[in-house]
């Protein structure tokens, strides 16, 4: 898995010049440690390029909970390997202050979201809450140009999902 993470970072490094779309697919079988690999890739991209804003986009609440559990279980391991901590959280429309902290935080930030949390104009992420001073949370996130990690991207192929993902204005997408 360390080799896979390094290969992903090398792929991004070698192809950033002259690529029209910063959209990369990494195929791994179920049960092979995808979550570990993309968490390690996040840390490698942070170490090598100083990237600090990452969104892990998942198709369901169950997968989101699995990602959070993996982060909890591997936090000490990654701290030991990389000597760096990170802030991670699941997006919750009732805790919008976390979105602002994500955007303004100087440390490595990882937000885990479901595609359903922002794929409709009726979602809080796309509204203008009073406490956001006329800004939509999705616009605040988009200003950071996060690296988007799409877990099970085949479940996010609808036109509605693609349009919502584009609103995040990701620097690059890792599928």
Provide a compact summary of the structure.
The protein has 175 residues and is an alpha/beta fold. The chain has helices at residues 2-15, 34-49, 61-82, 97-104, 137-142, 159-167, and strands at 23-24, 53-58, 87-90, 109-114, 147-150, 172-174. The chain contains six helices and six strands.
Overall geometric form: globular
Cα radius of gyration in angstroms: 16 Å
Biggest β-sheet, characterized? 6 strands, parallel
Q: Provide the succession of SSEs.
A: HEHEHEHEHEHE
Mean of residue pLDDT? 81
Query: Strand fraction band?
Result: 5-15%
Contiguous runs where pLDDT drops below 50 for at least 5 residues: none
Extended strand count: 6
- Percent helix among the residues? 40-55%
Distance linking N and C termini:
16 Å
Q: Which structural class do you get from the secondary structure elements?
A: alpha/beta
Major β-sheet strand ordering:
1-6-5-2-4-3
Treating each run of at least 4 consecutive H or I residues as one helix, how many helices? Answer: 6
Structure report:
The chain is 43% helix and 14% strand. A 6-stranded parallel β-sheet has the order 1-6-5-2-4-3, with helices on both faces. The two termini are 16 Å apart. The longest helix is centred in the middle third of the chain and has 22 residues, at 61-82. With 175 residues, it is α/β, with parallel strands linked by helices. It is globular, with a radius of gyration of 16 Å. The chain contains 6 helices and 6 strands; from the N terminus they run αβαβαβαβαβαβ.
